[in-house]
Design a protein that fits this description.
Elements lengths: L8 E7 L4 H15 L3 E5 L12 E9 L2 E2 L1 H9 L1 H5 L3 E6 L14 H10 L3 E5 L2 E2 L6 H9 L5 E2 L3 H18 L1
Parallel strand pairs: 1-2, 1-3, 3-5, 5-6
Antiparallel strand pairs: 3-4, 7-8
Helix pairs in contact: 1-6
The structure holds flavin mononucleotide (FMN).
């Protein structure tokens, strides 16, 4: 990797069903921009080439303890390229369970992080808005007693982006 941090283009590739995780992706991007990096937020299906990027932040909402298939398919398709560059992975999902630090990451997330050699993996709290959900999803949420609300910790996400910027500066 060559150049200085202010010429580094960072892809923030986020799979999100109802927009909450995408919102976290925008927080990451905004913060990376404040560190003079050049972030771009994209949905997995919108990425056609990784050549133009120096680093990639992957993010996915969690459903039924798995990442979204669009993110998994993306990581599969670009696995070789991702393994050759600095990558970071976050998942978002837990709802009002207190600190998320002690919660285990889903297996597919751990496997993906290992496969591409992600430099860090984080789990962040999510958001559940009943009006966003289909009837079947609402039924599942009722069954498991999930509480509605926005539990996203924007400060924690911004702090993670700060750490990524610092890591990239030393990775140069
Ligand atoms: C049907 C359903 C299943 C869910 N399963 C999980 C899960 O297994 N683990 C988890 O942490 N969060 C789970 N969640 C919570 C979502 O991950 C959370 O609402 C997330 O913020 C949604 O992100 P999105 O708006 O980007 O799709 C589930 C939510 C729904 C509606």
């Amino acid at each position: 990797m060559e150049g200085t941090i202010d010429s580094m283009r960072v892809l923030v590739c986020v799979a999100s069903k109802h927009g909450a995780t995408l919102g976290l992706g925008h927080v990451v991007a905004r913060r990376l921009g404040e560190h003079d990096l050049q972030p771009q937020v994209r949905l997995p299906a919108a990425v056609t080439d990784l050549d133009e990027y120096h680093a990639v932040v992957l993010g996915s909402a969690l459903y039924a303890n798995r990442m979204m298939p669009t993110l998994t398919a993306f990581a599969h398709r670009w696995g070789e390229a991702l393994a050759a560059m600095p990558t970071y992975l976050f998942n978002s999902g837990p709802l009002d369970l207190g600190p998320v630090n002690d919660l285990p990451l889903p297996k597919d997330s751990r496997d993906l992080a290992a496969r591409i050699g992600a430099r860090d993996v984080q789990l962040f709290a999510g958001r559940l808005l009943p009006n966003d959900l289909r009837a079947s999803e609402r039924a599942v949420m009722r069954m498991i007693g999930a509480r509605a609300g926005d539990f996203r910790d924007f400060k924690a996400v911004a702090a993670w982006a700060d750490a990524i910027a610092q890591d990239l500066a030393t990775a140069l």
